[in-house]
Amino acid sequence: MILRGLVRIGQTLVVLLIVSFATFGLLKLAPGDPVQLALGAEYSETAYRSLQREMGLDQPFLVQYLAWARDFATGDWGRSYVARTDIFTFAVLEALPVTLTLASLSLFFAILIGVPLGVLSAVKKDSIFDAGAAVFALTGTAFPSFLLGILLIWLFGVKLGLFPVMGYVSPWQDPVTGLYHMVLPALTLSTYFIAMITRLTRATLIEVLEQPYIAAARARGEPRWRVIWVHGVRNIAMPLVTILGLQLGTLLQGTVLTETVFSLPGLGQMITDAVLSREYVVVQAGVMLTATLFITINLLVDLSYPFLDPRLRAR
Amino acid sequence: MAAVTDMDSPTPAPAAATGPGRRSSLFLRRPFFTIALLATLAYVGAAVFAPWVAPYDPVQQSIDAMMAPPGPAHWLGTDSYGQDILSRIIYGARYALVIGLCSVLIGAAGGLVIGLAAGLAGGWVEWALMRVIDSILALPSLIMAVAFIAILGQGVDKVVIAVGLSMIGPFARTVRADVMQVRVQLYIEAARLMSIPRWQVIARHVLPNVVFPLAVQVTIRISEAILVSSSLSFLGIGVTPPTPDWGLMIAEGRGFVAFAPWMSAMPGLALALLLIALSILGDGIREEYDPKLRGGS
Fold first, then answer.
1. CB 3.0 to 4.6 Å from A147: which of A246, B166, B177, B268, for a disulfide?
2. Residues A102 and A258 sit within 8 Å (Cβ to Cβ)
């Protein structure tokens, strides 16, 4: 098991290496000369050459990559000329917490609502409630999140005036106002996951409830709620973690759209703004950060299986 | 419709057998599938016959009719430039469907090449290609599409390429999985023992076993391509105005949601209904033809 874990970590490092190489190489292909961009319209040949040397752009590609990778690993990500800040501070200390807060709150909502919905749906299989949950699950997974966000803004923000629709207050500094501002964005992002978890929980639980050990637990005279919530739901953890791990990408790209809808200053907003202002250094940093995040979480999900399923420990 | 049975699947798919006797028609068994199919065909019809169906020119601006609510003159209202929303939605179906289809085909073609190579090569080449596929899959498709857009710039053709490239990963993975299943089959070994050339084995025995599931994947993933491309437009980095693109229209209406909610809601509903219809179609196709995928991701 330890060996398997090490192999997995090794593979992850290789993937990170390829991703970083591709990100660096691809954005080198982007149109526009960074030296020219920094110098403006008029410049002398010598000024061009000296700045080129200063930026390391006269070096061979591989040397440039290695220098960039070293800088990236040590947190020296350069400066954003548009946002006028250090990119590392901007991305990791300012934007990332916003994105992570939104993502984790949405995931929390999704599990909190999705699992009970799925359990009820499985227990009351083929009832009207089940049919309703099925329709919700289908629409919820297909409905574009940015549209849902706008509809929620219109309904809860404009018509009912219940929630603030714009602006961001950090929940770490002001928990009450911060969470209040996060409710609509998190609800928008979590709808897809609520629908997906409902679907998954229902399907898994129906299968689990047909297992002999459930019949045995019933025969022992255990109360119905214990049979379902203890013996049944425990077996949902494994497929749930697997699917959530696979769907993390969807969650991350969901944050990009949700941040734009609600004007939240997260990673997605940072990357989109950088694309629009053609600031490739920031795009590079944002893409690398997202990839690193995604790859690391996937690794953690993979490594957590033996802890969730005792049967995997023996191997 | 005749039952499609896989030569190499030992047991018939359990859930596909609906009751005793012959299987009834696909359309009777799946009423939602039929409705979804009709809805999709309606979108295709709107896209093809847009100039005859649309009541107005989709890019004709009018100062007299700015942000008019839905009414007899403009059934779905007008936007902030006085452009007729219904006409823009009808023309927008062209962009949505063409961008979706083209990009998914680019993704499938790329995935087919990489997946075949990875599945057939074996050894360190396979290992290396698998890590490349892992790396492509390491980025969420929208983020990857955004990165490609950063390099390529904006526009319909650029969106098609960016979305297509970002979809290669999942296709490559499924193609490789199918190749792996085929290459251990007895008939492949038999062909090899008969010293039939390798390329012929690939063309005759491997490809047919890979292309059909790939076609199923293509139909299932069209909705994803449409969603990602309209997301790019919504973010303001995809198709450029005044193209009647749904994502763009939703984004344009975002600032006016307080007094002209139809500006976002109408194109949004058009997009949502198409995505829901396509996802029902996809589920139906998956369950009919791809018992391997049932229950899994």
1. B268
2. yes
